[in-house]
Write a structure and sequence with these properties.
There is one protein chain. The chain is mainly alpha-helical. It is rod-shaped and about 135 Å long. It has two domains: 77 residues, no CATH class; 137 residues, Helix Hairpins (Orthogonal Bundle). A hairpin with a 2-residue loop joins β1 and β2. α1 packs antiparallel against α3 and α2 runs antiparallel to α3. The structure holds zinc ion. The site of zinc ion has 8 residues, from loops.
């Protein structure tokens, strides 16, 4: 196939830029599935779960304390009633009965108060846990936001870099003939479509060619494109 030196250089440039484009595409794919984001997301999920559990415990403690306070109020009411009955009673048998009941009510009250104290201490500890979980969650969220921001910026940069490469690519395509472009497209995916002959080695498939083959390639007319007998790549011999 005929190719002027300008076309041969444009073909080499086209192959080089296609390599850069595929690197840029890989980079964009890497950015989109960054593992550091997965880690941050997992950390956030864990923190959210811990917070949910701590808040659930807080709710349970609050209702237990509320129930206990109701019980205490009932006991207090009964004690007040018994005390007033005691003050107005003159029957010794009644008095003994009321005193007996008062003693057991006082005992119940002290048990309830002890239990309440225990629950209040637990609630204090739980409040600290909730606060710590909220802080951990906030930190994990801001870490994730920061990573997302960085990834987005890197992605935007990579995508705009890719657009520039595509523009440049068009310039090289404009310099080659339709026939060369067609062959180039046919070779893409099978091999590096264009390369230089480096000594005895094909720059596309990196195979060492025989001396006779290299002589033949070197003796090809300057405006003619040689082909690698191994990988079929277009071989450029101009310097
Ligand atoms: Zn080759």
């Amino acid at each position: 196939m005929k190719a002027t030196s300008v076309e041969q250089q444009a073909l080499l440039d086209l192959a080089a830029i296609d390599l850069e484009i595929s690197r840029a595409n890989r980079r964009i794919a890497e950015i989109r599935q960054a593992s550091q984001r997965d880690e941050a997301q997992a950390k956030l999920s864990l923190a959210s779960e811990k917070l949910l559990i701590a808040r659930h415990v807080a709710d349970e403690l609050s209702s237990e304390i509320a129930r206990l306070e109701q019980d205490l109020q009932l006991v207090d009411t009964r004690i007040a009633q018994d005390k007033s009955r005691l003050a107005s009673s003159s029957n010794p048998r009644d008095i003994t009965g009321i005193q007996h009941e008062l003693a057991s009510l006082e005992k119940r009250k002290s048990n309830l108060e002890e239990l309440e104290l225990e629950l209040l201490v637990r609630r204090e500890g739980n409040a600290a846990e909730v606060a710590a979980a909220v802080a951990a969650r906030t930190e994990a969220q801001s870490e994730l936001d920061e990573i997302d921001g960085q990834l987005e910026a890197a992605g935007v940069k990579a995508v705009s870099g890719l657009a520039l490469l595509a523009q440049q690519r068009e310039k090289y395509v404009a310099l080659i003939s339709a026939e060369q472009h067609e062959l180039y497209n046919k070779l893409v995916g099978k091999t590096v479509p264009v390369a230089r002959l480096e000594g005895f080695t094909c720059g596309a498939c990196n195979l060492a060619l025989s001396g006779a083959t290299v002589d033949e390639i070197r003796s090809t007319a300057k405006d003619e494109l040689a082909r690698c007998p191994e990988c079929a790549a277009m071989l450029v011999t101009i310097s």
